[in-house]
Amino acid sequence: MFDLGKHKIEIKCPSCNRGHSATLNEVGKKTIKCGCGANIQLQDSNNSVRNGVSDINKGFKKLEDTLKKFGK
Fold first, then answer.
1. Quick check: helix, strand or coil at residue 12?
2. DSSP letter (8 states) at residue 37
3. Residue 27: how many CB atoms within 10 A of its CB?
4. What is the pLDDT of residue 33?
5. Phi first, then psi: what are they for 13, rounded to 5°?
6. Secondary element (H or E) of residue 67
7. How many CA atoms lie within 13 Å of 18's alpha carbon, on the beta-carbon side?
8. What's 41's DSSP letter?
9. To the nearest whole percent, how much of the chain has pLDDT over 90?
10. What is the pLDDT of residues 37-66, one digit of tens each?
11. Distance between CA atoms of 33 and 15, rounded to whole angstroms?
């Protein structure tokens, strides 16, 4: 099954511009420690990322269930 939350995003350190990756599920839950010493807090104001991922996953689940019905 499709899970948008496992999609990787690229984050750049605001101090040194070094690239880091995280999944959408980690946004709002994780702090990335950069090699330059900066801590990058992945914020999810108003849970918009979490809610969006959940809504999209539900839509794909409904689509998958509908397509399975056509195969019967």
1. strand
2. S
3. 19
4. 96
5. -65, 130
6. helix 48-70
7. 12
8. E
9. 86
10. 999 999 998 999 999 999 999 999 999 999
11. 12
Any idea how long the chain is? 72
Q: Please enumerate in sequence order all residues whose Cβ is within 8 A of that of 41, keeping only pairs 6 or more positions apart, or say none.
A: 31
Burial class (CB in 10 A: 0-12, 13-18, 19+), 32: middle
b/e code 34-62 from CB counts within 10 Å (16+ = b): beeeeebebebeeeebbeebeebeeeeee
Q: Which of 29, 31, 30, 35 is nearest to 17 (CA)?
A: 35
Q: Read off the pTM.
A: 0.75
Give the Cα separation of 25 and 22 in Å (integer): 8
